[in-house]
Amino acid sequence: MDATALWQRYQKWLYFHEGLGFFLDVSRMRFDDAFVEKLQPKFEKAFADMAELEKGAIANPDENRMVGHYWLRNPDLAPTPELTQEIVSTIEQIDVFAEKVHTGAIHPPKAPRFTDIISIGIGGSALGPQFVAEALASDFPPLAIHFIDNSDPTGIDRVLTQVRNRLTSTLVLVISKSGGTPEPRNGMAEVKKVYAGHNLDFANYAIAITMPGSKLDEQAKSEGWLARFPMFDWVGGRTSELSAVGLLPGALQGIDIRAMLEGAKEMDDATRIQDLKNNPAALLALSWYYAGNGKGEKDMVVLPYKDSLFLFSRYLQQLVMESLGKEKDLNGNIVHQGIAVYGNKGSTDQHAYVQQLREGVPNFFATLIEVLEDRQNPSPEIEPGITSGDYLSGFLQGTREALYEKHRDSVTVTIPQVNSRTVGALIALYERAVGLYASLININAYHQPGVEAGKKAAAEILELQKKVVAVLQEEKTPLTLEQISQKVSATDKIESIYMILRHLHANSRGVVLEGNIGQPNSLKFCIGG
């Protein structure tokens, strides 16, 4: 396509939202009018599906749940007055609590102010708050936040070391819908022991964000924790950033959560328009469908050209991949759907993998995130008439052009600056795009059976570990792996037994081995001491 035709295509497909100062350019996706026309019936159904979802339809039949994260930023849309009031009162409670923490009206027993936050969560209870903290928290926030988002002992130690001199002024947020998810439960248990080791009553520092009546909620209530905030069963983890999960840590860091909600609301309004060319989320869904032939045949490479947005690709990984990565469609057919997401930031990654993107395997489409404002203050010139921000803009445009020349498609999202409104809008945009795309390909975007299967398998391994250790404790002589597997009635799990014992031995957990650890059949195990 020559330059004139490409310019005409750019103008034809450019979306602009005046209120948000938001642009979306899908002109470098090579769909034609016939393709758009062919998808029109699917989009009409997708728009209808989304409207039903927002009215309170059971959109997650596996768990008999509504899906209502849209109500979080527009409570009047909630299907009952009671839900509306719950949402409104929760936001008010967050505002009041954060203000009291900032003024010192709520303070720790041994310090005049809280200075830090340890946020303990996993998946959506960590990725959203991490992304928002990196994007929006000031360089010197009223409370600095630290995340424990894994069951990695070294990672937990690192966070606790960072706050070791401020433990007496560090809040702990424990974020878990049920209270039974292993990773946040493990993090809480370790942190609680550290507080006890410093003669600090954990309850004076702890806040629960959980479902009312959950195991965690009951624990927080019985132990007299500092505060409890609700999670709702109609909000999934990957769409929970604009619930208490993300709003409380954001407010404590001094982030304008009301502006985040307003930005999301404005984007929601824009993405309800049942006209493909005037709906940015529909344009994204169209682009995804075209790129991957409606089957996720190409990966989504996300390149934000702003350091503060570098965690956006991690956030989108969960939102997109957990929502769309499904074995079966709504009719029970095996479809193996999904879109793989990876990326980091531009222009750093132009030096890392744009070489392959331009000239290697054409198994992707790119999403470039542009921020128009370079910095809040004037930029110095690096060379006559040119600033570092000009270079960054040039790198983005250059990458977009270089990819297109080699028939590699891209989408460009442009925001005026990184602020609470625009970040809220980005979150809402991609939430809606995922919902529309899921309808196009006829899958349930709101359950995660694969995640649950992984949790179940992990629980089985830990149960097997208990049986293996019990057998070794009872035996007086060393046993081979085969003997151990027979005694625990798990001959089909001999590899897992080897890995369990290798791990216990490496961590000096009482397991003694004889033989060559690299040759499993040569080994015998016993409990030492």
UniProtKB/TrEMBL annotation:
Main location group: cytoplasm
CDD domains, per the entry: SIS_PGI_1, SIS_PGI_2
Subcellular location: Cytoplasm
Keyword Hydrolase: no
Keywords: Cytoplasm, Gluconeogenesis, Glycolysis, Isomerase
Catalytic activity: alpha-D-glucose 6-phosphate = beta-D-fructose 6-phosphate
Pathway in which the depicted protein is active: Carbohydrate biosynthesis; gluconeogenesis; Carbohydrate degradation; glycolysis; D-glyceraldehyde 3-phosphate and glycerone phosphate from D-glucose: step 2/4
Stored Pfam families: PGI
Active-site feature positions: 322 (proton donor), 351, 455
A GO MF label: monosaccharide binding
Cellular component, GO, one term: cytosol
EC annotation from Swiss-Prot or TrEMBL: 5.3.1.9
GO biological process: gluconeogenesis; glucose 6-phosphate metabolic process; glycolytic process
Family as reported in the entry's similarity comment: Belongs to the GPI family.
Record function comment: Catalyzes the reversible isomerization of glucose-6-phosphate to fructose-6-phosphate.
Protein name from the UniProt record: Glucose-6-phosphate isomerase
Source organism of the structure: Pelatocladus maniniholoensis HA4357-MV3
Gene name per UniProt: pgi
